[in-house]
Amino acid sequence: MTVLAIETSCDETSVAIVRDGAVLSNIVASQVKLHAEYGGIVPELAAREHLRNILPVARTAMREAGVTPNQIYAVAATQGPGLPNALMIGFKTAQALAFALRKPLLGINHHEAHLYSPWITSAPHRADFDSFEPNVSLIVSGGHTLLVHVEAELRHRVLGSTLDDAAGECFDKAAKLIGLPYPGGPEMDRLAEGGDAKAFDFPRPLLHDASDDFSFSGLKTSVRYFLRDHPELLHDTQRLGDLCASVQAAIVEVLVTKTIRAARRLSVGCVTASGGVTCNRVLRRELATACSRNGLKLRLAEKAFCTDNAAMIAILAERKFLTGSEQTMTDADVMPSWALG
Q1: Domain range list for the chain
Q2: What value, to the nearest 5°, has the Cα angle with vertex 165 and ends 208 and 301?
Q3: What is the C-alpha separation between 329 and 306, in angstroms, rounded?
Q4: Which residues share a beta bridge with 265?
Q5: What phi and psi, each to the nearest 5 degrees, are found at residue 114?
Q6: How many CA atoms lie within 13 A of 107 on its CB side?
Q7: Which of 19, 61, 225, 261 is the most exposed place for a label (fewest CB within 10 A)?
Q8: pTM for the whole thing?
Q9: Where does residue 229 rank: exposed (0-12), middle (13-18), buried (19+ CB within 10 A)?
């Protein structure tokens, strides 16, 4: 089975080819430089860039995989959540391709794909569902922060989610307040490496709340007022590192504490984590330490599969086709209305 998948939920255009669980290609065209000028993602510009990139990226993915169009068994695309205009570019392209090739099309939920990205192995990249086990999964990105109980393969339920600002948004907005270039999260991670995480005491929102929900708007506001009262810190390199480390520590402590607490409450033996913020070095390190201390296995998505990518979309789509867990779309969904008469 060879599946071609398209991912355009935000600001990265990605096309991947997966065959029998093996990732043959996973091409990603980033828009970071385009949006850096504005300090954040501009939805209309993102959609236009997807439109410009989608066909060249698809051709590159097929060439790298050594696959021809008639070898494709099925097409998949991210159906949501994401920026509406950006999603439309990828999904309409997938519809057109499926129609032209007379192949089935499957829409994939972006979050659900993240759930299974930690089960993509390295060297070579392929799905490792043979070692799958029930887990509590942390999905943490710029737009969402979720805790999910994955009870069995392709069976899961959301435990808690973002009430206001996601962790990634808090990273990026705090970095912008500090004056760091876009994207701010990775830059804050870099500066925090040499800083003192205990230098400043920032709030840990909902840390002791019994729910599995997350809230980071208060922390972001706290950083804003702290900088208003201590503007001199922005001109001291060492103190700036301390500030970044302290903000990062507050975010990471909430994420790790709530994840471990949920895993222990549900008596699962495994924790997984994915999403763009999972690239953060301190989060990866603290999750590993906490899981080791609590006797839990930990599977972290590889950094290449933490950010938006089509490989995880293709992996999940192939699994759904193989298990029959979800019907593929009908001709009415794939074909334009004029083609149906």
Answers
A1: 2-125+306-340, 132-301
A2: 85
A3: 28
A4: none
A5: -60, -35
A6: 16
A7: 225
A8: 0.92
A9: exposed
Tens digit of each residue's pLDDT (9 = 90 or more) over 235-281? 888 899 999 999 999 999 999 999 999 999 999 999 999 999 999 99
The residue type at 286: E
- Please name which of 20, 80, 8, 102 lies closest in space to residue 329, comparing C-alpha atoms: 102
Residue 335 pLDDT: 37
CA atoms of 56 and 15, how far apart (whole Å)? 10
CATH H-level, domain 2-125+306-340: superfamily: ATPase, nucleotide binding domain (3.30.420.40)
- Got the DSSP string for 161-177? -BSSS-HHHHHHHHHHH
**Rounded-to-5 percentages of helix, strand, coil across the chain:** 50, 20, 30
CA distance 39 to 178: 13
With beta carbons less than 8 A apart as the criterion, state whether 162 and 214 touch.
yes
**pLDDT over threshold 60, residue 29:** yes
Which pLDDT score is estimated for 143?
87
pLDDT of the residue at 326: 59
**Per-chain mean pLDDT for the chain:** 93
Write the single-letter amino acid at 239. R
Q: At residue 161, what are phi and psi to the nearest 5 degrees?
A: -150, -175
pLDDT of residue 293: 98
pLDDT of 333: 41
Tell me how crowded residue 122 is: count the other CB atoms within 10 A of its CB.
10
Say if residue 261 is exposed, middle or buried (CB neighbours under 10 Å; 0-12, 13-18, 19+): middle
Q: What is the mean pLDDT of residues 213-217?
A: 96
Cβ-count burial 13-36 (b if 16+ within 10 Å, e if not)? bbbbbbbebebbbbbbbebeeebe
